[in-house]
């Protein structure tokens, strides 16, 4: 299992206190992809720029898709730019891939509202592997989960992560999610104000 798949399974399988927004999770999945590509030496970071490294196609289909979409010549893409580009609709891509592979079942989840129910992974070696990684509080998975609100641990500086490149990606994910949350809040305020105008005194 890749880090984004582990994160996706944990997001769908762990009870948490506040809703996980699909947009937030999409950004975190894109960040998890970069982290796995760094670990595989498929890319490296030059500051916050994603630079192609030793090409070897990942076995994971979505991770291979991510690797193939890396900008392979200068000017290289920043981590922030990658998150917003690659992250667009990534939640749906991982959900569809989970459905296509068949290890899912429809079940209602109060924190991911759906009229038809949301796919939740059934018991499988892959799900148990994700659960074991989560239970062991593996630093990268825990940090990503913290950013999107799956974990209520303190996110400040991700103290248990020591790799500088990974820290750069995690900080970019945190910033992007914070920005997206602010956009949602601003829209909610604007919509509420608009509704109040129409209601009148």
Automatic annotation (TrEMBL):
UniProt source species: Streptomyces sp. R41
Its membrane topology: Peripheral membrane protein
Top-level division of the source organism's lineage: Bacteria
Record flagged with keyword Transferase: no
Primary localization class, coarse: Golgi
Subcellular location(s) of the protein: Golgi apparatus membrane
Keyword Iron-sulfur: no
Pfam families noted in UniProt: GPP34
Protein name: GPP34 family phosphoprotein
InterPro entries: GPP34-like, GPP34-like_sf
A Gene Ontology molecular function term of the record: phosphatidylinositol-4-phosphate binding
GO cellular component: cytoplasm; endomembrane system
Alphabetized UniProt keyword annotations: Golgi apparatus, Lipid-binding, Membrane
């Amino acid at each position: 299992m890749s880090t984004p798949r582990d994160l996706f399974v944990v997001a769908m399988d762990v009870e948490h206190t506040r809703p996980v927004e699909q947009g937030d999770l999409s950004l975190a999945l894109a960040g998890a992809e970069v982290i796995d590509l760094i670990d595989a030496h498929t890319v490296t970071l030059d500051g916050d720029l994603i630079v192609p490294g030793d090409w070897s196609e990942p076995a994971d289909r979505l991770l291979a898709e991510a690797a193939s979409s890396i900008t392979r010549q200068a000017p290289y893409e920043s981590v922030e730019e990658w998150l917003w580009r690659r992250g667009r609709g990534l939640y749906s891509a991982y959900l569809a891939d989970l459905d296509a592979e068949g290890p899912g079942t429809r079940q209602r989840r109060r924190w991911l509202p759906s009229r038809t129910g949301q796919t939740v992974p059934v018991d499988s070696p892959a799900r148990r592997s994700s659960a074991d990684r989560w239970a062991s509080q593996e630093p990268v998975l825990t940090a990503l989960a913290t950013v999107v609100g799956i974990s209520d641990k303190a996110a400040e500086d991700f103290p248990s992560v020591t790799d500088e490149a990974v820290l750069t990606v995690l900080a970019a994910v945190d910033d992007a999610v914070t920005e997206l949350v602010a956009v949602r809040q601003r829209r909610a305020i604007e919509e509420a104000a608009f509704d109040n105008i129409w209601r009148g005194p």
